[in-house]
Design goal:
Two copies of one chain form a homodimer. Chain A is α/β, with parallel strands linked by helices. Chain A folds into three domains: 44 residues, lambda repressor-like DNA-binding domains (434 Repressor (Amino-terminal Domain)), CATH 1.10.260.40; 124 residues, Rossmann fold, CATH 3.40.50.2300; 125 residues, 3-Layer(aba) Sandwich (Rossmann fold). Chain A has twelve helices and twelve strands. In chain A, the strands form two sheets. In chain A, strands 2-1-3-4-5-11 form a six-stranded parallel beta sheet, with helices on both faces. A six-stranded mixed beta sheet of chain A has the order 7-6-8-9-10-12, with helices on both faces. In chain A, β6, α9 and β7 form a beta-alpha-beta unit. The longest helix of chain A has 18 residues. Chain A is elongated, with a radius of gyration of 26 Å. The termini of chain A are far apart. The interface between A and B is large, with 56 and 55 residues. The first copy, chain A, binds a DNA duplex through α2 and α4.
DNA sequence: CTGTTAGCGCGTTCAG
DNA sequence: CTGAACGCGCTAACAG
């Protein structure tokens, strides 16, 4: 049976060391304000008593908790883990702690989480938020906010600008002779989705290609797999997917119908997180999830330090990474198995 | 430019409603102790002032924060996201909030995180901890702890018992005619790894098979891919991998060497999280990451309610799920490309 | 350099 | 049913 020790307080340490409470406090936060020997004596006493500063009490008094919240729509999506890792590393450098929240693509859950986090964190990073602009603006009045892949004027944001990469993807397909293509889209509330969709539209128009849009409920492997029938019905010979996960699902769906990629059909993902993990290796639009995570946190920390919200809009560029899922359009249309 | 509103306190609400501070407090925590009309009046005042209870102050006073921490070694490993989701859902049912921490497989980082979380959470779930028994025991004296996939007597734990499933895997390979097999292992500090390794050893011995153990630095796609040379040098015709991620890496490594799975080589994963996502679809040992997440949280909540740590050991069973990466052993040995 | 004195915002006795 | 008073553990002026 495990015994639990109960919180030893600052005053007990003060008594044990024969000093005032404030000195103990200083020994931990401003050792340079005490004589070295006093610090030493206090630390020794604290050590033997097993004193550990009470984070909650400190936060109540200073208003600083040393935590920052990071909320993502779906940890299971391979786009986020690297971002999260990078965020954590960056936060760590300034001795901040990341509280991670997962909304399961659910705006209500996201709203709830933000409310729950506010008050325990000094600031919040919202990645690929599914909330309305109004809700986000409302939250921004409560605490410092940084957005990832969401473009709201007046709120600091860091964006992966897919347009260049997506444009290259369309060019790539056009050069391979594809005339009819499809875009398997992502969540309606996703900024990235809107952005990618219009980039494709622009590219297709420019090259006189026929474009169909296939909706999906959420960016998942399963959704991609189930979108395949709809894709095939459009008569397209190539598809661009909202993200790599969806693309991977499409890959499987095609294989199940004995359609060989890239011989019979070409496919391009976005985010480039599955890279060579799929078979065949997926052609995809690069991203910078690591940089984005790092930059967002660094921005937030700057804001926390300066107490001053500038209207920053940090956009990162993208490009196409060609691998093995794209090839010449089939010469006489798709051979359905 | 976004303006930030500053914390409206309980006393402001009290003034506005013409009551004492304590009444406002009660209106939120024990409405049944006030007259309905008073409650109504207070809530109205709070609403218009935009009052929101200060979580930190409340926690300081009550010792209850309504948070529980969940620490995992690697969010990027597909084993964890479903577990995390389930944990979050279960916590939500009791109106608790999950703080997620990621240790990047680093014991020092894990130790740091636990220290950082303790004091802001009421209890902690450590999933696949890489800490030593001593450290875990030490932490357990500080706050309620529940372990996932770590078997320490005296500390509540929920375990996925792979032995049955792994045993079936070995039987399966034996029946297919494989005589020499290899185990590509996981982290040294992993309880699951130790357990799986001994299950394989027992099975191989029982069927008179030759077994080689290949170490890896961490359970990742990359590690699996890099382990392939070592695997091939053992002369094995089949391999069991510590987890699906490693197995997927091995799959790629084999493909790169033009070794066709399952014709030339058989492979089995563990955790069954990549299921049909790989190509060919991976034969794997089932798991219950969802149940494990749910159960661990539910256990912790029980402990928090009863203030009483029982020595619970909850073990879940596993079985083999056969898909397309296992087949008869090649009749005249492996044809190296 | 160190001790003293106020709060931080809220929950909770304990009288009325 | 309500209000006044105290304390949670710590930091931040302000003296000395």
């Amino acid at each position: 049976m495990i015994k639990r020790t109960k919180g030893v307080t600052i005053s007990q340490v003060a008594d044990a060391a024969g000093v005032a409470r404030s000195s103990v406090s200083r020994a931990f936060t401003r050792p340079d304000m005490l004589s070295p020997e006093t610090v030493e004596r206090i630390l020794r006493a604290a050590e033997t008593l097993g004193y550990v500063p009470n984070h909650t009490a400190r936060a109540l008094s200073t208003g600083r908790h040393g935590n920052i919240g990071l909320i993502v729509p779906d940890i299971a999506n391979p786009f986020f883990p690297p971002l999260i890792q990078a965020a954590q590393t960056e936060a760590d450098r300034s001795d901040f702690c990341i509280f991670l929240g997962n909304t399961a693509e659910n705006p209500k859950q996201e709203d709830k989480l933000v409310g729950r986090f506010a008050g325990q964190v000094e600031g919040l990073v919202l990645a690929s938020s599914r909330l309305s602009d109004e809700r986000i603006r409302a939250h921004a009045t409560q605490l410092p906010l940084v957005l990832i892949n969401r473009d709201i004027e007046g709120i600091p944001r860091v964006l992966i600008d897919s347009s260049a990469g997506v444009r290259q993807a369309v060019e790539h397909l056009a050069n391979l002779g594809h005339r009819k293509i499809a875009y398997v889209s992502g969540p309606a509330a996703s900024w990235s989705n809107k952005q990618r969709r219009s980039a494709i539209r622009a590219g297709a128009t420019a090259r006189g290609m026929e474009l169909s849009i296939i909706p999906t409920p959420s960016p998942t492997y399963q959704a991609g797999r189930e979108a395949v029938d709809a894709v095939l019905q459009t008569g397209a010979s190539a598809v661009v997917a909202f993200d790599d996960l969806t693309a991977q699902g499409i890959l499987t769906g095609l294989a199940e119908r004995h359609i060989v990629v890239p011989r019979d059909f070409s496919i391009i993902g976005c985010d480039d997180v599955l890279g060579a993990v799929t078979f065949p290796a997926l052609t995809s639009v690069s991203n910078h999830s690591v940089d984005v995570g790092r930059i967002a946190i660094s921005m937030l920390l700057d804001i926390l330090r300066s107490r001053n919200v500038a209207d920053v809009r940090y956009a990162l560029d993208t490009k196409l990474v060609v691998r093995d899922t794209t090839a010449d359009a089939p010469s006489q249309g798709l051979q359905l198995g």
